Amino acid sequence: MKLYEYQAREIYMKYGIPVPKGEVASSPQEVRRIAEKLGSPVVIKAQILVAGRGKAGGILFAETPEEAEKISRNLLGKKIKGCVVKKVLVVEKVQFEKEYFLSITVDRDNRVYCFLVSRRGGVNVEELAKKHPEDLLRVNINPLVGLLDYQIRKILSFLSLTSNQKKDLYKIIKAMYEIMRKYDCELVEINPLAVTTRGDLIALDTRMIIDDNSKYRHPDIEEPEEEYTEYEKIAKEKGFSYVELDGDIGVIGNGAGLTMATMDLVFHYGGRPANFLDIGGGAKAERVKEAVKVLLQHPRVKVILVNILGGITRCDEVAKGIVAAVKEASVEKPIFVRMMGTNEEEGKRILRSAGINVYESMEEAALAAVKVVR
């Protein structure tokens, strides 16, 4: 679960991490009131959950309350990268001399927390790793042991800071790790952490992502409306594991591994998956029907690729569900199916009787689906 910046900064403030003064607003009048209260030039930041909002016109500056109101009038309600701006964060404009990057993520491969630190802030860390790896420090933290002092000292010595700034950064690092653990986070990030002209450290931009599986442990945190797309919400209501992507080939599988392998094949043959949809094990015809209907209704999906390995999931039940979805749908889209396992022959017979493409291998099915949209 991604948090809006204003939500993340409230948590950061609670743990003593310094952030610019400011408040969130949902109307131009509120923006003006906040700007008047701050009594200085302000930064107006669109509260959306996509990256790159600055380059897309989502971060603007105003010298006066009147200008802030005018700017926010154009920004509120605007669509940025497909997201409607409903709120803006209005903060004081901070003069700074240096920028750094700090983040903690979960390294699932090595089963550790990973602290990433860069001497260059306000930049894309992936690009930085390619172009300037010498400016990036990685510190792995064993979650069973915790963050140790020598690891913090390693980070402090990597950055060019005064002794007082190092003391402040020590507290910030400890606080970030505490937030990571307390809120079951997948990401805690400050980008940039700035050194002001007065020599103080301040977090100019804050990000947090909380593990979806732990949301029940944080009922006090309001789930952002934009967390899910329209079709992710529909699929979630129907009980499916569904993630929306930006391609045009709908993908359905049973089991996360098989579904991801199917997506990999689509990429391999030059296609782009529109989604990840796992129907789970033992799915009956009704559940399969609802899954197929989600993709039939999706305007961006041009073809549907279904890959089933029948164990507790019966191939004939899957076939019945696919046929039922096609009969009920108001739109027609090519469907390509590969199925193997329990009641495989009966499933294939049902599909072929309905004129639906059935293939012996997942490679053949994926290639056929990609050829249609090329």
User: What is the percentage of strand-forming residues?
Assistant: 25-35%
Oligomer: single chain
| Head-to-tail CA distance between termini | 34 Å
Number of strands: 18
Helical residue percent? 25-40%
How many DSSP helices? 12
N to C succession of SSEs: HEHEEHEEEEEHEHHEEEHEEHEHEHEHEH
Question: Helix/strand-derived class?
Answer: alpha+beta
What radius of gyration results from the CA coordinates?
Answer: 25 Å
Low-confidence stretches: none
Largest sheet: 6 strands, antiparallel
Number of separate domains: 3
Taking all residues together, what is the mean pLDDT? 94
Structural topology:
Layout: H1 5-14, E1 22-25, H2 28-38, E2 42-46, E3 59-62, H3 65-75, E4 79-80, E5 83-84, E6 88-92, E7 96-107, E8 112-118, H4 125-131, E9 136-141, H5 149-158, H6 163-182, E10 185-196, E11 201-203, E12 206-210, H7 230-237, E13 241-244, E14 249-253, H8 256-268, E15 275-278, H9 285-297, E16 303-310, H10 315-328, E17 335-341, H11 344-353, E18 357-359, H12 362-373
Parallel strand pairs: 14-15, 14-16, 16-17, 17-18
Antiparallel strand pairs: 1-6, 2-3, 2-6, 4-5, 7-8, 7-10, 8-9, 10-11, 10-12, 13-15
